[in-house]
Each structure stands twice: as structure tokens, then as C-alpha cells.
């Protein structure tokens, strides 16, 4: 009797930890995109200017990407349970500060805190899942973890749009509190502490220089438009910091035998090429969401909830294609899947070039679904390509850099499309306004109200043209990396964990 009760208790603890780890993965991912469809409500509530909107997303992603490489060292030094629970507490504090923010600076600071905490939650959740499940199920749990993470990113706009429209923008953060509470209880009660008996060395200098390079570049891209680029001393400081950071990191990699990213990662052709292409994957994945929802709301007049619903088919197509591609037999040439995925993404973005103020919702759904299917094929196919020729001892570091490339691709992509959007809007506004004569139309002088209405129409048309230009930029980015598929070698199935046989 006691044995049966013990088995029941162990099973309860086991499945509670699995559920909590997957829920933590979903929670940190959904908070990337949940402000997307509600961004106009956030903007109005905090008096944000248009060029500050991108910070809502890039601050969260960039902070998480900088902290993520520290996860393994922190868990070994202080224990995975302690680090996980502290990260969860900091994440929850970030949620509270999001709802209390009264200014854009306060809100972005809260997002940075929240994003930094998410940088350890995701990899620790994966580590807990791998520890709780037998090795034979590691392949499937890898797929489940990836699907859960993408489901969070892709369901965020629909959830945030509905909450923002009917309950106010603060509700998009309230929804995470019950999830955080369940995760805290499950991990606090059932997760056993685990530390390394021997403290591992961590390359803080390499991590610091790499982070300074990335942070400087991100700040320069985010602040450049507002500060009039190199007319501002701030932009010069950020640019110089980025250059020095990357220079020191490259010198460090070339001259030291040990650092937090092993040299073998940079000399492996398949891994290097796939990582560059995964950067382009991230460059398209989130910036498309960052452009689509504001376009639907601000330019086409859809309410926030409808704008969120219209993004759902893209997510469904992405997840369906991901699952089907992951189940593809290993004897099938993986490079063909990459080519098909690239083609679908480029074609989906090409269809976006036909967007018009007169269209209904169908072109957005069709183009998004096609692009989503292509992205869904690329994620598992590029993962196979990256790890097919990489030796097992380098997989841990390889996984960190591979995931960082997607995160950095997304955050830099958001910054780049924001820059070109506002720059193109201004230039198109000037080009269209040059064809107008504000003095007389039909013999009658235009009133101030009529001039304001005309200016609003011109601004709307210029914004539509600018948005289409950004979709073109995303298409070009994918076309640029497409020839790299020719450099990939056919994967060796035995080296890739979690690939369907």
C-alpha cells in the first residue's frame, strides 16, 4: 500500500515538473509577442512616440539573449532550483512593474528586467525536462519544447489583442500571474536541488565583450532615428562601444584556447552556415508580427482583437509545417526541405508586397500562412543541418549560440524595420505632398480642417507604402541567405539527436 502511494506521489511530482517546465517555456515566449496587437493601447496609455514602439519587443529579447549564456554557470554555482525560482520571482516583479509603469522609460525598464529573467527560464526549463524524462524520449521532448516556445510567440498577438481590446492593456500582463504561481508551487515543492560538485570556469571576459558589442549595436539601432544618428554624441558612444566589444571578442576567440563559444563552432561549415540562416529566420519571424498588427489596426482600421485573430493562420501553418518536417525520414535530403522552406518564405513576403488600403483580411491571412509554412519547415531543417556534423561534446555550446542567433536576428530585425519604416514614411510623405497644391481646389480656398484631412490621407498612404517596403526588406534578407544552402553537406543522421528515423 505504501509502495503504491509512493509511486503515485512520484508520478504526481514528475508530471507536475514536466507541466511546470513547459508552462514556463510558454510563459516566457508569449510575453515576447503579447503586446503586439495591443501596442496601440500601450502607446496611448504611456504616451509613447512611434519610434519607441520597437523598444517594447527589442528590450525584452535583447536582455534575455545577453543573460542566456550565463544559465549553465549560474545553475552550477548556485543550484538550478534556486536560480529558477529567483528568475521566476524577478520575472514576476517585471510583470508588476509593467502594469505600474506611467512613462515609456519605466515600461521599457520593466521589460528589460522581465526579459533578463526569461533568459534563464527557457534553458533551465529544457534542462529540467531532459532530467525528468528518460533518454529515449529526449528527441520528442525537444520537439515539444520547440513547439511550446513557438506556440507562445505565435499565440501572443491573438491573446494580447483580445485582452487589450476588452480588458485594457494592463490585462496582457495580468494573464501571466496564474501561470507564474503554478510554476512556483510545482518547482518549489517537487524540484530537487542540483549543483555541480566542481565549479566550472566561465569565460566572463568573452561573454562581457560579446554582450557589449551586441548591446551597443542594439542601442545604436534603437536610438539612432530619434537622436539623428551620428549628429548625436550618444550614437557615437554606442557605435564605438559596439566596435570595441566585437573587436575584443574576436581577438579573444582567436588567441585563447578556452572561451564560452568553442572555436570548433566557427570552423564547422554546416553549423556556421545554418546559424547564419537561423539568424535570417529570426530576422523574418518576429519583425513580420511587429509590422502586421500595427498595419491592420492603424492603417486598415481593424480593432485590436480582430488584428490578433488574423495572425492565427500564420501560427497554425508554422506549427503544422514544423511537426511534419520534424517527422521527415532522415534518408530524405534535408537540403531540399530548406530550399522549399526558403521558397515559401520568399513567396509569402512577395505576396505581402501587394497589400493595399482597399484590401480585406484575406490577403493578410493567405500571405501569412504561406510564410508561416516556410518558417515552420526551416526551423527543424536548419536544426538538423547545424548539428548533423557537429561533434556531441560541442552540442551544449552550439545550442546556446544557435538559439542566440535567432534571438539576435529578431531583435536586430525589429530595430531595422522600425528605422526604415519611419524613414520611408517621411520620404514618401514628401514625395506625395509635392504633387498637392494647397491653395485652391475647384476655385475654393482650402480651410485648415480640409488641409489637416488632406495631410492625414497623405500620411496614411505614405505609411502603407513604407510598410510594404519593410516586407520587401524581409524578403530580400531571406533571398540573400538562400544561396548558402549550396554550402551545406548532407547530414549524418546518427549525429543528430531527436531526428525521426
Automatic annotation (TrEMBL):
Record-given protein name: DHA2 family multidrug resistance protein
Entry's transmembrane regions: 53-71, 83-100, 112-130, 142-163, 169-190, 202-221, 233-253, 265-286, 306-324, 336-355, 361-379, 400-422, 463-488
Subcellular location: Cell membrane
Pfam families the record matches: MFS_1
UniProt source species: Dyella japonica
Highest taxon above the source species: Bacteria
Keyword vocabulary terms for this entry: Cell membrane, Membrane, Transmembrane, Transmembrane helix, Transport
Domain Major facilitator superfamily (MFS) profile positions: 17-494
Topological relation to the membrane, as annotated: Multi-pass membrane protein
Amino acid at each position: 500500500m505504501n509502495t503504491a502511494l509512493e509511486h503515485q506521489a512520484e508520478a504526481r511530482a514528475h508530471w507536475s515538473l514536466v507541466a511546470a517546465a513547459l508552462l514556463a517555456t510558454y510563459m516566457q515566449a508569449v510575453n515576447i509577442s503579447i503586446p503586439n496587437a495591443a501596442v496601440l493601447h500601450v502607446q496611448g496609455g504611456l504616451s509613447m512616440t512611434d519610434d519607441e514602439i520597437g523598444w517594447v519587443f527589442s528590450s525584452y529579447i535583447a536582455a534575455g539573449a545577453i543573460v542566456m549564456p550565463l544559465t549553465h554557470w549560474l545553475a552550477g554555482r548556485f543550484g538550478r532550483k534556486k536560480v529558477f525560482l529567483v528568475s521566476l520571482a524577478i520575472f514576476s516583479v517585471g510583470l508588476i512593474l509593467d502594469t505600474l509603469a506611467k512613462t515609456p522609460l519605466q515600461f521599457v525598464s520593466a521589460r528589460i528586467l522581465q526579459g533578463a529573467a526569461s533568459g534563464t527560464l527557457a534553458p533551465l526549463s529544457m534542462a529540467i525536462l531532459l532530467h525528468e524524462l528518460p533518454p529515449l524520449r529526449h528527441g520528442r521532448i525537444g520537439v515539444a519544447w520547440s513547439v511550446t516556445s513557438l506556440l507562445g510567440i505565435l499565440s501572443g498577438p491573438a491573446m494580447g489583442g483580445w485582452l487589450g481590446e476588452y480588458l485594457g492593456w494592463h490585462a496582457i500582463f495580468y494573464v501571466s500571474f496564474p501561470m507564474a504561481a503554478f510554476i512556483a508551487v510545482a518547482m518549489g515543492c517537487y524540484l530537487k536541488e542540483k549543483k555541480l560538485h566542481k565549479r566550472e570556469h566561465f569565460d566572463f571576459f568573452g561573454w562581457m565583450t560579446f554582450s557589449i558589442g551586441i548591446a551597443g549595436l542594439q542601442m545604436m539601432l534603437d536610438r539612432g532615428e530619434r537622436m539623428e544618428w551620428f549628429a548625436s554624441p550618444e550614437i557615437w558612444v554606442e557605435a564605438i562601444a559596439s566596435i570595441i566589444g566585437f573587436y575584443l571578442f574576436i581577438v579573444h576567440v582567436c588567441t585563447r584556447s578556452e572561451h564560452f563559444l568553442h572555436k570548433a563552432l566557427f570552423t564547422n561549415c554546416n553549423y556556421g552556415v545554418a546559424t547564419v540562416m537561423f539568424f535570417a529566420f529570426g530576422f523574418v519571424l518576429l519583425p513580420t508580427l511587429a509590422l502586421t498588427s500595427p498595419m491592420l489596426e492603424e492603417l486598415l482600421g481593424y480593432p485590436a482583437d480582430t488584428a490578433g485573430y488574423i495572425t492565427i493562420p500564420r501560427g497554425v501553418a508554422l506549427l503544422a509545417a514544423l511537426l511534419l518536417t520534424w517527422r521527415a525520414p532522415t534518408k530524405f535530403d534535408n537540403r531540399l526541405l530548406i530550399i522549399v522552406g526558403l521558397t515559401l518564405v520568399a513567396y509569402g513576403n512577395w505576396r505581402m508586397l501587394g497589400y493595399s488600403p482597399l484590401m480585406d483580411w484575406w490577403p493578410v491571412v493567405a500571405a501569412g500562412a504561406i510564410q508561416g509554412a516556410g518558417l515552420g519547415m526551416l526551423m527543424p531543417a536548419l536544426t538538423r543541418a547545424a548539428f548533423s556534423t557537429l561533434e556531441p561534446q560541442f552540442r551544449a555550446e552550439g545550442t546556446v549560440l544557435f538559439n542566440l542567433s535567432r534571438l539576435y536576428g529578431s531583435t536586430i530585425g525589429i530595430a531595422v524595420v522600425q528605422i526604415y519604416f519611419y524613414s520611408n514614411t517621411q520620404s514618401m510623405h514628401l514625395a506625395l505632398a509635392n504633387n498637392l497644391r494647397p491653395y485652391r481646389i475647384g476655385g475654393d480656398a482650402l480651410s485648415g480642417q480640409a488641409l489637416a484631412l488632406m495631410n492625414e490621407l497623405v500620411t496614411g498612404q505614405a505609411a502603407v507604402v513604407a510598410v510594404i517596403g519593410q516586407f520587401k526588406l524581409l524578403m530580400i534578407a531571406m533571398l540573400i541567405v538562400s544561396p548558402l544552402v549550396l554550402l551545406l553537406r548532407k547530414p549524418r543522421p546518427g549525429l543528430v539527436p531527436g531526428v525521426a528515423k
